[in-house]
Write a structure and sequence with these properties.
- The structure is a single chain.
- The chain is an alpha+beta fold and 167 residues long.
- It is globular, with a radius of gyration of 17 Å.
Length: 167
Amino acid sequence: MDALFDKSLKPHKEHVRSEWVDYNGHMNVAYYMLVFDHASDVFLDQIGLDQAFRDSTNSSVFVVEAHLTYENEVMEGDALIVATRVLDFDVKRIHLFHRMVQEGSDETVSTNELMILYVDMQIRRSANMPGTITEHLLGLQKRQEARQMPVQAGRSIGISKKNKLQI
């Protein structure tokens, strides 16, 4: 992976399964999000928000917004690698970015930008993350602050006025 991502975070690796391939012969859009969700789980485990922590604190995280870009197609059996980066965080939220490549290539396949909310499951409302978690996030953010922002981060969707049909 490239210099945009912290090498201290273990990337997620997964192969494109046959049942993920659609009528166009490539991985269906729904499964990109599944692979990114698996990468989010790997990330959460690494910062201490693993299943044991969630069980012992009756807490969890909810994704409250997600953006995907698709830049290259992948086919059945392709080996995928997803690197993760913390773009920002506060006491209740994590702004996360994933970049997917094919193993052996540095060409972007897809990206996923997420806003994740820390939740007290007893009341099912947002809550402040414990200091142990924010300490992990702060360390990651400090190591990444000099790195360039991914070009896909913060994008919005729309049709440019210059290309719009005149009706």
